[in-house]
Specification:
mainly alpha
Length: 74
């Protein structure tokens, strides 16, 4: 696996560390996942297990849409 080295401003580094800690990942793992997601356009591992079916509020109801408008053609 390749290693990359780069520089960021101190305030960016601080935010990266905060987000990595919030995600319970090392900074290296957090950045690797971020770069992988941005470059390969893949879903993060276990994404659907963490997202699908997780709504805990009141059931979502779709309101009636009403009638379609009649619009003049272009």
């Amino acid at each position: 696996m390749a290693q990359l080295h780069f520089y960021v401003p101190d305030e960016v580094a601080k935010e990266i560390r905060r987000r990595a800690q919030q995600s319970r990942l090392t900074v290296s793992r957090y950045l690797a996942e971020l770069v992988k997601r941005e470059t390969l356009n893949e879903w993060p591992e276990d994404y659907f297990e963490h997202v699908t079916g997780q709504w805990k509020g009141e059931p979502l109801l779709r309101e009636p849409e009403g009638e379609y408008e009649d619009r003049p053609g272009l």
